[in-house]
Amino acid sequence: MILDRLCKYVVDEAQNNSFEFRVIEAAVGLKYTYAIIEDIENRSRYIGLSYTPTEDITHQPIELKRVDSITMSNLCNFVTSSNFISRAIALAILNAISSRFLKLSENALEKDILDVIDIRFKNRVAFIGYIEPLIRRIKSKVKDLIIFERNWLRRREAFPDTLIPRLLENAEVIIISGAALLNDSLDWVLHYAQRNFFKALVGATASVLPQPLFAAGIDCIGGFKVPEEGISKVSELIRLGGGTREIYMHGLKYVVCRKIML
Predict the structure, then answer these.
(1) What is the pTM of this model?
(2) What is the pLDDT of residues 162-188, one digit of tens each?
(3) Engineering a disulfide at 230: which of 31, 129, 250, 259 sits with its beta carbon 3.0 to 4.6 angstroms away?
């Protein structure tokens, strides 16, 4: 699956560069999960974020007793765990490692996905996940907008994601929440999005090294990177239940693409 291949790619990249880390802090917040890692060699710190999948968390026993038990050798086991709390923490660590190796040009910074896609009124646009800020911006600009959302508490006028096989096929532009990477639904979304669609993966959860996602069929990634000086503030906000609007004030949005729409 895509998440498995992604984890292997990031771990290989880190090992090829002799990078070793230790997890020094992690927390599962109401909206986001974060993990802070430290480069063992030079003590630099990096933070990674992940959506907290409240709709998928069950009464399974806590799998992780100590976050510093996650190492390079077992990270992918936790990334693909059936325990979604463990998975969210491990994906946040994967994003933190990616932050160490992600090279961004000035042209990629301070943009979101709608800044690089030429969406026209005639286009049919689909959102996988109720990404409110982007939906608000685009709602009056396109003739046909369809939204899918797994979490019924966030669904509003959206369809459940079980209808993706029936309703997705005619969309020309598909904007996918990074949560689809976390819950493995990205694989089957892309399965139903094979007819020359433009596909973007967005959000802090999607802030990984992009190459495996490009290989899987994603065209652009809209991610979020936190500089070292912003780590303490972002982690505090997540512990206090903060969401995208609060944490994005302390980092940099970016977009990286393998092609540009239209």
Answers:
(1) 0.94
(2) 999 999 988 999 999 999 999 999 999
(3) 250
- What's the token pair of residue 233? 């503030």
Q: 262 burial class (0-12, 13-18, 19+ CB within 10 angstroms)?
A: exposed
The C-alpha angle with vertex 106 and arms to 100 and 107, in degrees rounded to 5, equals: 120
End-to-end CA distance of the chain: 29
Q: Give percent of the chain with pLDDT exceeding 90.
A: 79
Two tokens at 81? 């765990």
> What are the chain's domains?
2-101 (no CATH), 106-231+245-257 (3.40.50.11590)
Specify the pairing of strand 144-148 against strand 124-128: parallel
Asked if residue 252 lies in contact with residue 110, where contact means CB atoms within 8 angstroms, the answer is yes
Query: What's the whole-number mean pLDDT along residues 194-222?
Result: 93
The label of the residue with tokens 């508490």 reads 153
| Four-CA torsion 190, 195, 197, 200, nearest 10 degrees | 10
Q: Does pLDDT of 83 surpass 50? A: yes
Cα torsion for 180, 185, 186, 188, to the nearest 10°?
-160
**Under a CB-based contact definition with an 8 Å cutoff, are residues 74 and 90 in contact?**
no
Average pLDDT over residues 46-53: 97
